[in-house]
């Protein structure tokens, strides 16, 4: 079986390796526009901040080694231009030589990810504007900072990537302002969580421009819609990602309401010989079964496994997604799984919320932490619908335990009965997760 893969980062390189294990006698060719193979995109903000000193640590393997160890043909710097579904071929351009050639397939896997949205800024002129989507973007930001030694910047967009950039710019000693058209950071999460994150930013000297936008730029001066103005040396934009589905659209593959490529539970598109995975695939919500697009690394990796098993004739199905996610902001961690209060309200789902605010572990233990944990649940069935937490310790484990509880179809009351590990450095005899169960009663 000859398998072509489009995209060679999270989903693409993972699915190639998975297929090699699951279908040992297949021929696999991996195409990617990026000159770097399968790097840890999620680590890029920390390379910019200097916490990870060597950018090459993000890269798992060189194309040569990957290719040799797994018997996979790796063609980086190659742009797949078109799919001919009738002939089962793709047209590919070597980006260095401009040579265009045709490659046939038995199965085609698309993992094209997305493209960073660029804001339209009046008067931008020579003021540098960066986005952070690829290894090359990261290198550009680092090169610029090292070469020009800027003192200040503005980050547009206070979502996950925005707040990670802010922390890392501050870490590099830059005076950093956040500009967001919303009234708070991290609007995916409940306002109570955003409030704690906002305070953390304030304590770390981030300037805020909420419910605001750049009206125009004059030289280095940002003139804001709300009347304020200030100077910056550069702008970093993190206002979202548009899915890179042009190739799929031109091949008449179905696109869903989330603008992702529609797939079944084995990640097959409406053409059974073409699969789509990663950011560009449209999945289902765990609770409602409605279309959901989750742009995170876990789905890309899980979907790679699902595709490999399907190709091997040993299929398992992809579950709906909870969208479990976590991020760090200075001394805090924020994480969520399942629905927020807003997404439940938008869906018209009635819910109750149990809240625990207190210590993560024994108060007499030096260096004890605090946590705000919010759990939404269905008041009739008592099933857990979502959870969010922010704090300085143990946020990851609480949200992961609750994500597991959701997938195990446990009720909020069951959380009280979970027998969790306790020792003063880590927890209390009644863990915050247990406390949620007691509180919900
Ligand atoms: C700064 C940053 C931080 C992140 N942090 C986290 C995190 O902490 N946790 C988390 O879960 N997720 C995080 N993510 C998201 C995560 O990186 C993505 O969900 C994941 O990379 C998606 O994998 P993918 O294979 O779908 O797309 P990508 O990894 O984006 O790979 C797609 C590749 O396909 C190439 N391509 C597209 N079209 C073609 C074509 N026609 N021909 C050839 N090549 C093509 C693209 O150029 C790209 O190289 C982060 C993302 C960014 C940008």
UniProtKB/TrEMBL annotation:
The keyword Flavoprotein applies. Residues 328-427 form the Pyridine nucleotide-disulphide oxidoreductase dimerisation domain. Keywords: FAD, Flavoprotein, Oxidoreductase, Redox-active center. Residues 1-297 form the FAD/NAD(P)-binding domain. SUPFAM superfamilies: FAD/NAD(P)-binding domain, FAD/NAD-linked reductases, dimerisation (C-terminal) domain. Pfam families: Pyr_redox_2, Pyr_redox_dim. It comes from the Bacteria. Transmembrane segments: none annotated. Belongs to the class-III pyridine nucleotide-disulfide oxidoreductase family. This is NADPH-dependent 2,4-dienoyl-CoA reductase/sulfur reductase-like enzyme. It comes from Sporosarcina psychrophila (Bacillus psychrophilus). The lineage of its organism: Bacteria, Bacillati, Bacillota, Bacilli, Bacillales.
